[in-house]
Amino acid sequence: MKPRFTVITILISMALIATCSDDHAKAAHNETNSHADHQSSETQAVGMTLNNGEKWPMDEHTRNSFSEMEEVFFNADHVALEGKGLKQLGSDLQADLDGLIKGCTMTGEAHNQLHVYLTGYIPAVQELSKTGNLEDAKKVKHYLEIYDDYLE
Known about the structure:
By secondary structure, the chain is an all-alpha fold.
């Protein structure tokens, strides 16, 4: 069952990422490089950019999905859950991610920026669901914290 779940998750992730064109990826890369002085080094690694200094508007479905993921993640006692409990937390976040992807209707540059964000967030959640360790929980936390810096 686990290998099938992993394959499905990877295929969904690849399909999500593949919908972005190379032109948008290059534009995002160039924009990131030209505005690097406005971003922290941690956020630069994500590749996010702002929309002329403003956050990118997300649709209601995306906002609700991330609100749910933040609530689930930040209301958990990560130290007490380390191991099996954090694996379950990762699985719960993965289920929320699957719902986000399935219900996505966004288009345009805001959608492209969401994809840039997800290229880091999805692997972080996948690792947490596999390992259940605190280091992977910290990576998920990082992505959930920077969501509000770039997306609204």
